[in-house]
Write a structure and sequence with these properties.
Helix content is 24%, strand content 23%. It has eight helices and 13 strands. The chain is globular, with a radius of gyration of 18 Å. With 312 residues, it is α/β, with parallel strands linked by helices.
Length: 312
């Protein structure tokens, strides 16, 4: 076991990885082919899958601090470039914009449908992946995407209907710095520009989940301040856990990339905390080993300078 001095947590040793991109999936109804990146350890079998959704404007090359960490510790991580990515630069009047949230879920479903072909496209990976153990994860807008796959219901701003878009192939979720309750708690900016946040219902999420929130994440989307991003934990059913990152702003110390310019709270210790707790949770929820998760729950129960971990 490797001990991380900055957090007091434990974790397994890392292994070399392989990453392939872009793997292209035809998606005619989307208007753009779906570009996918797959990262995986170069050894091991029965590897679980993390289906990761990026934040608004990012792409399949983002979040290397998390993706690299998970892949080097035994997980196949699959990322897509969603339609809101700056790489695609859709014009402001593009008719797909009001349905960005729905296209993201469709992207994830397409990936799940094409897992065999994606696996076969990565040298040496075929036959080593466990398609029965899939966790959806995402940051910010991607956190909503991951939540929808496990039961979060979003009222469609165009139809007024909240459909069940969950996917039974997904066993759990990790939601990082993602949106909370809508209604009157939204700012006028969010209500006008992000209509998919107006009405979210977390009560239908029955799958296990880990929510990660920064206690300084004061987004211009809610009038409630940083507590808003804890809603996916507080408003959902039992079987969830919440990691509160002390001093963490929206990028939780810099999870969106190495030396990224948009990080306003850059702190390698915060990033290490998120890396280690999310990995411990992934290993626990997929049935690999619960030792590191129980260690994290003990170490982060109280009086830790970096954060607090609680469960219900």
């Amino acid at each position: 076991m490797t001990t991380y001095q900055t957090t007091g947590l434990t974790g397994p040793a890392s292994t070399p990885t392989v990453a392939v991109k872009p793997l292209v999936l035809a998606a005619p109804e989307r208007g753009e082919d779906l570009h996918v990146r797959v990262s995986a350890p170069d050894t091991g079998s029965d590897l679980p899958i993390v289906l990761f959704a990026h934040g608004f404007g990012s792409d399949l090359d983002g979040y290397a601090p998390l993706v690299d960490h998970w892949a080097s510790h035994g997980f196949v991580v699959v990322q897509a470039t969603h339609l809101d990515s700056k790489r695609l630069a859709l014009p402001a009047d593009d008719p797909r914009r009001p349905q960005m949230w729905r296209y993201r879920v469709q992207d994830m479903r397409r990936i799940l449908d094409e897992l065999m072909s994606l696996e076969a496209s990565v040298p040496g990976l075929a036959g080593r992946v466990d398609h029965g153990r899939i966790v959806a994860a995402g940051h910010s807008f991607g956190g909503q995407t991951a939540g929808i796959l496990v039961g979060l219901r979003v009222t469609d701003p165009q139809t007024g209907i909240a459909e069940d878009l969950s996917d039974s192939r997904v066993m759990a979720s990790i939601q990082l710095a993602t949106a909370g309750n809508g209604g009157d708690e939204l700012t006028s900016f969010a209500h006008e520009n992000l209509p998919w946040l107006r009405d979210q219902d977390f009560s239908y999420i029955t799958a296990p989940g880990l929510v990660v929130a920064g206690d300084k994440d004061d987004l211009p989307l809610s009038t409630r301040g940083p507590a808003w991003t804890s809603d996916p934990y507080t408003l959902s059913r039992a079987g969830k856990s919440l990691l509160t990152v002390f001093g963490g702003e929206h990028l939780l110390g810099g999870i969106s990339g190495y030396r990224v310019a948009e990080t306003t709270d850059e702190d390698p210790h915060r990033v290490a905390l998120v890396q280690q707790v999310t990995l411990a949770y992934l290993r626990y929820v997929t049935g690999i080993d619960e030792t590191d998760w129980e260690k994290a729950r003990s170490v982060l129960a109280d009086d830790h300078p970096l954060g607090r971990l609680e469960s219900k």
